[in-house]
Give the backbone structure.
Amino acid sequence: MKVNTDSLILGSWAMLRADVKHAPRILDIGTGSGILALMMAQKAESQLVDIEFRIDAIEIDKDAAAQAVVNFKKSKWAEQLHIHSCDLADFKPAYLYDTIISNPPYFDTPAKVSNAYNKQSHNRSVARQTSTLSPDELFNASSALLIESGQMYCVYPASMEADIIKTAAGHGLLLEAMLYVKHTSDKDPYLCAFRFNKEMRNANDGHADCTAYVDRQHFTAKVANENALIIRDREGNYTNEYKALCQPFYLKF
């Protein structure tokens, strides 16, 4: 999987933590060709003047990881970017992260084989389908890899919104912000970008009961529907808001 609109939006919308006192550490889970890691490096360079940063990127597919290595070496942040070709479950860093970002696989494996899925390559299947990384696995690992109050960014289909918020909360990741993404103004959102924050552990070294939080936060998110990004106008042109968001990373704009 190369550069796609979902990653471009997520990387443009994500923000670096402003309250980190140490050298920031960022993790990109499922980096593919490396786009999100590279976008975060560009942001770090512009926002963290004279502050060192480190970005690790995990990729299970060896060919994609090799492509990311090439892209990292050709960038101006080659020393700050580090690729790890492994399964997320096998990733055991010596430190925790301030920020995690991921454009995860989010299509369910089909109940029965169709021509479209039958012709799909194994690599594309790994990149797109949840059989390789479910939301529960992603949030469980992210919670374990984040510092307290660390932030986690990801995207999922709008149809999964409630389940994603609930699953994340079950791992102590509470919704801080959300962006609905629409192809056009007359279409329903097709995508949600999420920012979660890792809550502090309680005295029993566990996470608090999140049921009431999930219900309240989901309602609040639904009401705040003005937080929507529309990609194209009625004439099929990119909207000003989309261009403004993505301009730092898109030479066409």
Notes: The chain has nine helices and eight strands. Confidence is low (pLDDT under 50) at residues 124-130, 221-225.
